[in-house]
Amino acid sequence: MERITLLHTEAVLAAGALERLCLPPPLPAVQARGLPAHEDDDPLDESARIRQALVRTGGNVVRAAQLLGLSRNILRYRMRRYGIARPPWEELSLSHAAGEQRPTPRSVSRSGSLPSVAPRTQLPRWEQKSVVVLAVALTFPSIHEPGMLSYAPWTAATRWEQVLTEKVHGFGGVLLQYSPALLLAAFGIPRTLDQMPQRAVQTALAIRRLVAEAHTALRTEPYPVAQFAVHQGTVLVDTQAPEPAQQLLAVGDTLTHPVRLLGHARDGELLVSSQVGPQVKDVCTLEERELPWEGESTHRHVYTVRGLRSWQTPLAGRVLRQFVGRERELAALHAYRAQAESGRG
After folding, report:
1. pTM across the whole model
2. Which DSSP state fits 244?
3. Counting CB atoms within 10 angstroms of each CB, which of 83, 203, 245, 289 has the fewest?
4. What tens digit of pLDDT does each residue of 132-146 get?
5. pLDDT digits (tens, 9 = 90+) for 302-320
6. Using an 8 Å Cβ cutoff, are 270 and 201 in contact?
7. Residues facing residue 300 across a β-bridge
8. Comparing C-alpha atoms, which of 102, 126, 122 is closest to residue 114?
9. CA distance 267 to 283
10. Out of 1.10.1740, 1.20.120, 2.60.120, 1.10.10, which CATH number does the structure's domain 28-99 have?
């Protein structure tokens, strides 16, 4: 009725207009394989069978309706009539603990028994983790004459997506979001990594180098213009989920702050927040900047990464004595170095 009142423009709703504007008839209800029609000797009444179906399907109304041979709307109507609500997680976890089914008066071996459903046996367990987020904004050049192109634009964007994904995974990051214009990657999920700010910054510099090489090379395909931002924050991760990166809740501005930094970045510029700058100053050349922040009277301090510092050992210029008595340890170090050089670091 809400849909009809929105689409009908006249004051009076006639039968013809009602027939014209109504939704198509619903599909026939799926016959339940597990629950036969109510029998006289069946000890479960209709309300008990509805509760049993909800418990067996983990509170899923759609699947419970299929088991009962009803439509979803009819099942919800009968739930309201009997005062039945979805069972809480505690009841579901207790009734399905260790893969056991909830005992009912109906025999499990009976031909009309409900089919077994594998419910979720563990509740979400949220863990607070510190992560470093890398945001990359990609802008492809405008196309004035699409008919004159010698390449497929979608193919070029997909190729860059694959390259960026490989770079993120190569430094130990995981993708949180990817679109043709924005990439969000996190370092520290599902396990904490060492040097997470350095990993994020090096990933951005590696991508920036690829874009610069594409700019100098003579290619018929376009290359994107990229801006980068890195920020460190906190997230909540469900450690029981099969894909923890998909079950993620940001705390504070963990995900929004790097995206807002992208709006202040120039083409090819890498901005890092005040939380990340002091942690990468030993390996990167930084330039401090003050940015006006919307909603705040003061400016925020961020850093522009110019590049990596030249590697210098703190022992440079000192006379070192001979390293003796560690033949076994030196052999292990050489073996590990050989593995690292072969790509198994």
Report:
1. 0.55
2. G
3. 83
4. 999 999 887 765 555
5. 999 988 887 655 555 667 7
6. yes
7. 291
8. 102
9. 22
10. 1.10.10
